[in-house]
Structure formats: C-alpha cells, structure tokens
Design brief:
Helix content: 10-25%
CATH class: Mainly Beta
Strand order of the largest sheet: 2-3-10-8-9-5-4-11
Distance between the termini: 21 Å
Largest sheet: 8 strands, antiparallel, barrel
Radius of gyration: 16 Å
CATH topology: Cyclophilin
Number of strands: 11
Order of helices and strands: EHEEHEEEEEEEHE
Structural class: alpha+beta
CATH superfamily: Cyclophilin-like
Strand content: 25-35%
CATH architecture: Beta Barrel
Shape: globular
Number of helices: 3
C-alpha cells in the first residue's frame, strides 16, 4: 500500500499553510495529487461528490512518495474502492487488484517480497503482487488529523499500494506512530474525509453504499 503531491478526490479540503504542515521544508520538493470521489449505488454517468488535495512529503518519505506517484501516474487508483472505513479512525483504499483489501502491490521492485529480502522479482515464482516497499515510519511525522499514511500488515516492510487517511475530527492516533509511515497531508477537503468516515458499513468495515475514487491525478 509522498516532490509536492496533492490528492484530489472530489472532496473539499480545508486550506492550510505549508510551512505549518511541514516546518522547515522546501515546498518545491512536494507533489500534488487530485482525487475525485463518488459515493453512490450506480456508477453509470457518475460524477464526483467530493474533491480532495493531498500534499506528499518527499523529504520525509521519498520511497513512499515515489511509490504513490507511480501508482497515480499509472492510473492504478482510478475506479477503485475505499474498501475499509471506520468512524473516528480512518478511510482505507488503494487495493487496485482485488478492490477488497486483499490485493495491491508496490509500483516498483525494491527487492522485497511480502516484506522479506529477495533477489527474485518473481517472488519465488509467485507474482509481482508480493512486491512491497521498505518502511520509513521513523521520519518524525505522526498520525494527526488529515494525515495520509500507508497500510501494511503487522510485519515490517509490507506496504504496497494500500493507504489510509485520517479524518479531521481526530486528534492523534499515537499507537500508529513509528509503525506505519505518514507521508502526506490533506490540504484541501479534509472535512470530506470526515464525512466519508461516517458512512454506514457492513462486514469487514466495507461501506454498504460504495465509495469510489473516480480518478487520481498528479497536478
């Protein structure tokens, strides 16, 4: 599952000062991604309900930033689900292979198969779905409101493509610090992340009415 990057998911984020977001950083090193998000039953002729903008932090998490940008530029997140949503916690997406939280993989080969060092990019004859990236969780960034972080298993170096975003009504998920890598912040539309986090869910915290990323674009 961060150049100047902004994710725009058709969610309106609250403006903020970049110097306050990443103190002392040159914002020219950031990347901007725009995502358009749809929440509804029928995708035919769907238009976005929300747009969000996310600023990626390449200085603190260069590998995670490059990985996210590569996925976005490849169109991997287009028409994918926020498959896991928990109120007062986060919304999670990025599984572009199975769309249910069981899939996804790193955009490039980092000599890791499911977190284990490997010299075989086929991952011992399986497939590239096992590609993962090394952790950058000790970068000093923490899980405050509106932060973008990488989903992974309980084992180190197992992030691939799945990510999660923390709503704006949260203070600090401190127990995630130094375990999951924070690599960006929603600079516009974080109130929409909060709205999405409150949708009705069913089994495995999956939204009853789908929440879809219609498109993600580097701008």
């Amino acid at each position: 599952m961060r150049i100047t990057a902004i994710l725009v998911m058709l969610i309106m984020l609250m403006p903020g000062c970049l110097d306050d977001i990443f103190p002392g950083e040159d914002t020219n090193e950031s990347s901007t991604i725009v995502m358009k998000i749809f929440h509804g039953e029928t995708l035919e002729n769907a238009t976005a309900n929300y747009t969000i903008t996310i600023e990626l932090d390449s200085s603190a998490a260069p590998i995670h930033t490059a990985n996210m940008l590569a996925h976005v530029e490849a169109g991997n997140f287009d028409m994918t689900h926020f498959h896991r949503i928990i109120d007062d916690f986060m919304i999670q997406g990025g599984d572009f292979t199975n769309h249910d939280g069981t899939g996804g993989h790193a955009a490039d080969w980092h000599e890791l198969c499911n977190g284990q060092p490997s010299g075989d990019s086929s991952c011992d004859g399986s497939n590239e779905l096992a590609w993962t990236i090394p952790d950058e969780a000790d970068n000093g960034l923490q899980h405050f409101a509106c932060r973008l972080s990488m989903a992974k298993t309980s084992q180190p170096n197992t992030a691939g493509s799945q990510f999660f975003i923390i709503p704006d009504d949260i203070n600090h998920h401190y127990w995630l610090d130094d375990a999951h890598t924070v690599f960006g912040i929603v600079t516009e539309g974080c109130e929409h992340i909060t709205t999405i986090s409150e949708v009705a869910t069913g089994q495995n915290d999956r939204p009853i009415v789908p929440v879809i990323i219609l498109s993600a674009e580097v701008v």
